[in-house]
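Course exercise 7: structure representation. Students receive a sequence record and must write out the corresponding structure in token form. The form below is the worked example handed out in class, using Protein (114 residues). Read each field label carefully; the graders check that inputs and outputs are placed in the correct fields and that the protein name is recorded exactly as given.

STUDENT ID: A-19
EXERCISE PROTEIN: Protein
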Amino acid sequence: MGFLSRMGVLNNWLSEEESLWIQSRIHLRALRYYRNWRQYFAGYTFGRQYWQSPEDDNLQLLREFLARKEYDDSGNDMFYQLFASDDAYYPTLSWQPLAYYSACPETLKDMSDL
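STUDENT ANSWER:
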């Protein structure tokens, strides 16, 4: 959803204020379901593999595909840049609540259940 929110700003579907508020809600949910950046990235990676799996209703084929844990080149590059390299980005970020969360913009009051 974070990516979609940023694309909403780029396409003028959302204001930056709206996008930041939506992303703050995403942040709170991530803190609830994951304990650290490594878990978060593992969840993202699994989802990415699922969406890249063959479009087939064959459950056994899906299990085999996911068990092989095959990354495409961009997935390998992403893992290296974010976690495995000496100057990896994610390990430098703290996994904690923000000091301040903005109020819901008026334009998104109908979405306040986020």
